[in-house]
Amino acid sequence: xxxxxERYLRSTGRDAVADAANEIAxxxxxxxxxxxxxxxxxxxxxxxxxxxxxxxxxxxxxxxLATLAGAEMSAKAAANDWPLNVEWGLIGSCTNSSYExxxxxxxxxxxxxxxxxxxxxxxxxxxxxxxxxxxxERDGLMQNFENLGAKIFTNxxxxxxxxxxxxxxxxxxxKNTIVHSFNRNFAKRADGNPNTHAFVTSPEMVAAIAxxxxxxxxxxxxxxxxxxxxxxxxxxxIGIELPPKGFDVEDAGYQxxxxxxxxxxxxxxxxxxxxxxxxxxxxxxxxxxxxxxxIKAHGKCTTDHISMAGPWLRYRGxxxxxxxxxxxxxxNAFNLKTDTVKNQLTGEYGAVPATQRAYKAxxxxxxxxxxxxxxxxxxxxxxxMEPRHLGVAAVIVKSFAxxxxxxxxxxxxxxxxxxxxxxxxxxxxxxxxxFVDLADFAPGKPLTLEVVHADGSKExxxxxxxxxxxxxxxxxxxSALNLIKQQAS
Amino acid sequence: MVFDIExxxxxxAKYPERIAAARAAVGKPLTLAEKILYAHLWEGxxxxxxxxxxxxxxxxxDRIACQDATAQMALLQFMQAGKTQVAVxxxxxxxxLIQAKIGADKDLQNAMNQSSEVFNFLDSVSNKYxxxxxxxGAGIIHQVVLENYxxxxxxxxxxxxxxxxxxxxxxxxxxxxGADAVDVxxxxxxxxxxxxxxxxxxxxxxxxxxxxxxxxxxxxxILTVKGGTGAIVEYFGEGAKSMSCTxxxxxxxxxxxxxxxTSTFGYDEIHGALFAFNRS
Lengths: 489, 280
Hints:
heterodimer; A: alpha/beta; 7-stranded mixed barrel; 15 helices; 26% helix; B: alpha/beta; 3 domains; 3-stranded parallel β-sheet
């Protein structure tokens, strides 16, 4: 018997990789002792019995809010006022867009069509690749979705990352529920509508729920009414792990690079709104005094809050333009509003990017303060480059998400954490901040921040950091890239 | 087509010696995550054990993948580094700049109309620096990587948090910022705090309406969006063995939602599954 990975490698035309892996297979899995006695080798061990695992529907607004399909969802939805009526079922994203995923969901769509059931919700499908789409089309899987009126979108991320033209005015769109097989369901993520309750579930459950139109549909017990008024039940999904006739594709969409690219010129227009060549960041130096607070973020502040996706994606290659979304999704802890912060120069409230540009124009450095797991979400370095570009010197939080913390370091900024979490509460809107021992920035040594309150009173708070010696060099050079250039020259 | 098979063979050729050195350094049986990490040390063979959750370690990833949104800034940065070619195999995938609205053909054409400037930039910069380019409509980066580039025991980084999807094919695949990718493209080491290790034992077998997605949705409920921070999640047990590769990809993919550095599965034996199996 072949391993599932080996089957997949061979089915996708990579016999040479499978053969090579088989030769060293013993090194490509954990040692027997580890799996026999995992508590002795892992820092934490969780055991899940798949025999007892039931379909889950996680959400809304956070992917860890787990609910079992059916009765548990009925109860929770009622208690939390989540709309039970489902408007869209979306299948796809990098998470669940394989041939097998489409086959499972397709088997549910096929049954509904054959049993005369019409889908109550709209369906959208994003296949994972042209190879998957071409093969699924050939094998009739796509037709099963189309029979229920599904829209087949491009082989691309689409709604999963906010690239969904669902509404002309998403901000004023109504409260509603969608289900999808994606990975993230933060507020506004898929369609820009803060009132959309998005739930994450398996492709086959997306299909079943979209067909039934009800968030609390339990396909193992509930029936559906077909066109003839009969009660019908959906059978269990049937998955096809790999296409029995093999994968096929006419044009996979790949372009190999030139062997010698030295003659190729990369053009970026000076007046481009989408692309902008970079200029190196100036080092922040060891003297950072009289800095102001740009924003103290309340609660969850993901990279979506810091650098919103959706329409802003078009400025990814233009640092100055995309900086106009800097922290506009973060909630100001002092008024619980988004994109409304106090400008200490004027005393007036304004948008975060405009306020920060005013500080920059006045030559004043600022800090951003945040809560737990600040920067959770995507790896986009724009969430670090934008505040850096606009003149934010330090981000001080209760805790960081790893990638974002590293990105701040890479851009030559200070990413720091409160040594005492509750010191977060000491930061007031009109404080000034002095980094009193930044000249002694060293691995393993906390920094001290002098907080000067509006009434003139002062207190010192301790800030931890995880910079090692080479990361401190990034800070000193102004960015990691600056250091690479210095070392190359 | 098999991409970069010579690179893969070189990685595998080093494995026995690297694992022997890791065993000697660590002094006890190794998890898969440790094997892959220790086999990809920038310094070569391991000399000392690293402290999980403590040591900063330099690694040498085998490949890099970038999506079209993050690739822009990554490649704009790489252009500033003064190199002629990327130092490790790299690909760019155009999947983020296409809005779903009407249907595949019209949406793709609209994206071409609106973002040709960006696609042309990525096309030319890829062509110039030896980067494989996947055009708009070719597919979603992590599915294309799983179908073409991922390999058991490999280490890759990608400028997207769901790079971790390649754990489904037994990689240590980690989402990074563009700046990290630029370092590796420029031939430098990639630094990571040596992760903690979470083991998830899967017993039994999926049945009925349950799916790999439910495994990770349950794990997310247990660990929350912070519970995997700084850790690699390694799945094992009978339940892992009986699961499809793309199902393992789904589970690995959403490891990003618990904050995990990445997730991975061993290239292990299977028990009783068929080539094109029927779950009913």
